[in-house]
Design goal:
2 domains; alpha+beta; six-stranded antiparallel β-sheet; about 15% helix; Glutamine Phosphoribosylpyrophosphate, subunit 1, domain 1; disordered N terminus; about 180 residues; globular; 11 strands
């Protein structure tokens, strides 16, 4: 079962959205019109564009999104949860032998007695494989995410360091060298 309730500031977009896959999202994608044109989609808003992108490319084009988002995308036997680079939009999830559940607020999961509840780290993607009841991390490396943000022209011998320490997993840390 997938449900969605979101206070809409601009306009109400009934969710979940369904095409090839099913999407629930809280997103503000600033370049959705540009991507809509680039990929010749017929999206009516940013959430519709996100669904079209996921249906066609899976999670491979998320680095092209300019904006903030959190979403759950269900296609065939897998559910993908993802958050943007800054993690402005929250996602909480839990997984045990019997259940996989997610919500934008931890208290929603606590209310139905889930115990081991984790916050999905910003810039993370997980895949829940329904038939196997397994969760896999698909989180891209910071270096990959930082492409397009860092200056294209490398300075001579000066390393650029990505610092994302604010409570994040140190395994995601990576020095981006100018070698």
């Amino acid at each position: 079962m997938v449900g969605h309730a979101l206070h809409a500031v601009v306009s109400h977009i009934p969710q979940p959205l369904k095409k090839e896959g099913l999407l629930v999202t809280n997103c503000e994608i600033y370049n959705w019109k540009k991507l809509n044109q680039k990929y010749n989609f017929n999206a009516k808003n940013d959430a519709d564009l996100l669904l079209s992108l996921l249906d066609k490319f899976g999670v491979d084009k998320l680095n092209e999104l300019d904006g903030v988002y959190a979403f759950a995308y269900w296609k065939k036997d897998a559910i993908f949860l993802a958050r943007d680079l800054l993690g402005e939009k929250p996602v909480w999830f839990t997984h045990n032998a019997d259940n996989f559940a997610f919500a934008s607020e931890k208290k929603a999961l606590e209310k139905v007695n889930f115990l081991d509840i984790k916050e999905l780290n910003p810039r993370s993607i997980i895949k829940y494989e329904i038939k196997e009841n397994k969760v896999r991390a698909l989180a891209p490396k910071i270096k990959k995410i930082m492409e397009g943000i860092l200056p294209k022209e490398k300075s001579k011998g000066v390393p650029i360091v990505a610092n994302a320490s604010a409570g994040k997993n140190w395994g995601e840390m990576e020095t981006i060298s100018t070698k």
